[in-house]
## 1
Amino acid sequence: MAKAITSREENYSEWYLDIVKKANLAANSAVRGCMVIKPNGFAIWERMQRQLDDMFKETGHVNAYFPLFIPKSFLSREAEHVEGFAKECAVVTHHRLMNDPNGGGVVVDPSAKLEEELIVRPTSETIIWHTFRDWITSYRDLPLLINQWANVVRWELRTRLFLRTSEFLWQEGHTAHATAEEALEEALKIQEVYATFAEEYMAMPVLRGVKTANERFAGAIDTYTIEALMQDGKALQAGTSHNLGQNFAKAFDVKFSNAENQEEYVWASSWGVSTRLVGGLIMTHSDDEGLVLPPKMAPVQVVIVPIPKPSEELNTKAKELMQELKARGIRVTYDDDDKQRPGFKFAENELKGIPIRLGLGKRDLDKGTIEVARRDEKTKESQPLDGIVDHVANLLEEIQQNLFDRAVRFREENSTHVDTFEEFQAAIDRDIPGFVYAHWDGTTETELKIKELTKATIRCIPNDRVEETGSCILSGKPSAGKVVFAKAY
RNA sequence: CGGGGCAUAGCGCAGUCCGGUUAGCGUGCCUGCUUUGGGAGCAGGAGGCCCCAGGUUCGAAUCCUGGUGCCCCGACCA
């Protein structure tokens, strides 16, 4: 068991890191807080990208690319925005290096100081709105629906692979609209796109909700979020979509002429999901044997293992089978390494999260069967080779659904409703705190006080919450409905 | 930004307190033989600026001074 990973029970944090490292998803790099995404990890991100990109295109968005560097002055145009990001920006101050006159290698050339420093984008609203000013003059230019796939940098003090790194990959959508209603609709539409993606493709159930004033994006009117529950009972903000109102249009003076030839400021939205989703995917489904991937997100869905080792006979059959599976659109590989034994390969393929393993041996060929093992439930059974492609195709769907159902069940089992602060405290203090629904008086003051006392934050006010009168668990003041608290990543 | 830890073979580590031949163990890697339906066994082999710089000493992975880097835990944030 050379590659055994720490169990979740023993140390959840170590378990997560073990999976990331031992499934070869990512590694720490020479740069603090920045990760190297390895081929296995990047393949998952690529699947996310491809699917999301299709969905964005489907909703009328087009891709573009804006610069990595942003003039420092741009960031300060929107007051709340700069306050939100100023503390975590990387700043470029010089543009040239020179040989150290003292022989210490290269040093920054002091004569190459920039007139205006550049910041490395922590998000691109400012540079994009500066550009949109040139793109928009008339209501006929609207709506403008732009997305970009990019890297961003936020100088994080505490990082974890995928979940929070100083540099990360993401997509950021930026849209401009003629009316407030349209901008709001756009923000909500994207929230639903994100939720659909999370649930149908990642098999990760999410709560759809709106952030409190305290938790919203710096510069937004409202932030819509999807929140997932991880296996340790902590919430993960998996995607956000912002209604920016006219805040950035005003800051960057972006106006359009409406049909009556009157000038108005443009209405905006922005939204993003990042490589953090890979972390969420890992923590939603994986177990103590390693990574578990839902079939739709698995770079490899089926692996065929020759037993006990490759032979001409087995290779021929396996390749034939691969062709049939590929023809059905199934991503399949053949593990024809003749050095490792089957047991090793089983463990290795489980660690990597491949949803289905097909074990093919001499006995199978004689009997016309094949061994089908599913990663999610760790069961295996012998199946007739005849009709195996249909069986595998159906099983992939079943696994996808099973993982989602399992995650929904976990979330339900770990969601509680409380009415008093004592109940609240007890719920949050459990080993798996989960989502805790409670009344809140709507003030930032109370929210912060609760956070100080319990470390729990308001994840969202659910879109589908039932309106009911109640009293705040802390202040006792009236509340119009329960909000969702949790400890969060 | 505080607190702690670590830096020695691809990876994981011991050795450092108490300086001393050729720096060691596990794993991985290479070769060969035997094995082979759940992480194989034996034999042989390759692989090291012991984080960097200075100092002490006949002699430094080890002691002293000064750096650098990364990780983990908290506070802040996607």
## 2
Amino acid sequence: MHNLILGYGSAVTDDLVLRRQVCFALYAASRALTDVYRPILDEFGLTYPQYLVLLVLWERPDDAPTVSELGAELRLDSGTLSPLLKRLEGAGLVVRRRSARDERRVEVGLTEQGRALRQQVDEVPLQIARATGLGITELVALRDTLTRVTDTIHRQKEQ
Amino acid sequence: MHNLILGYGSAVTDDLVLRRQVCFALYAASRALTDVYRPILDEFGLTYPQYLVLLVLWERPDDAPTVSELGAELRLDSGTLSPLLKRLEGAGLVVRRRSARDERRVEVGLTEQGRALRQQVDEVPLQIARATGLGITELVALRDTLTRVTDTIHRQKEQ
DNA sequence: CAAAATTAAGTTGTGCACAACTTATCGGGC
DNA sequence: GCCCGATAAGTTGTGCACAACTTAATTTTG
């Protein structure tokens, strides 16, 4: 009884059992939380990834980051962001404009409407945190563990 | 200094800051781990969700669960599973057959090839666990916390 | 037993993710 | 000033996820 997750590499062990795998737990929890977000964000006409983009923009309202800078924050590439930003622009929440000094870059800025939305979604993090059933201490610990895992993986990738 | 995550619900607080949100940490970690899986599973011609389906089938090789039973394990609906299973069948790893006693049901069974694949992916969980940089104790704790969150959310949903 | 409600799987449409590719612009070296 | 490699954003194609719907079989109920 202790090849949990790491196991000793035999096909007759339990390593390949779904419920034992931390990756499935992560995958399932991520989708479950997105399920909690969906009806809440739906009232604002947003998807979760769109909400994430707005979070970045709200952090620096006078900045108008480029598509690449947004991608670096969220770890998403232009293949994901380009159509997503087009939809946010269609909804009147952001504007995209070519940079004057570098015509390759596209700067993404908030519209008045996009800026105003911030106040309306103010209660969202609280609602989500409640749904997890965890206390603040556990949430912070979970967040930090997950961030450490993500950073470890990304650091390995760069080398 | 302590509206971390839960916060006190004001727009001028830090609740809406990306890096503070446990949900983003979860979303980012889930995608990062899938990134680790991708090149590994690619050698077997599998995606991560396809691998998850096989995990369920390998757990009970003589069972041939229905599409719904698979969906209950993985929390995926037929809209996701139907085309996925069609691809697994096209790859020669599973077979789908209408149940004799209930023509609505479709039973999903492993082919010889699908059964044989189990031995080949035996080392995968170990490789993944190593990539996280966490020890066994931390991995088990993380898994259990995440499972608790997922169960909490699903229990709330049913009521 | 027949109509109505339920259940199972599949289909359609939308929106991510991501790989691979294209197009346009930029910067450095000659 | 021109070529060349690098960079930025966008496009195309594939595969999830999931809502909403369709079709077919089964169960419930009057």
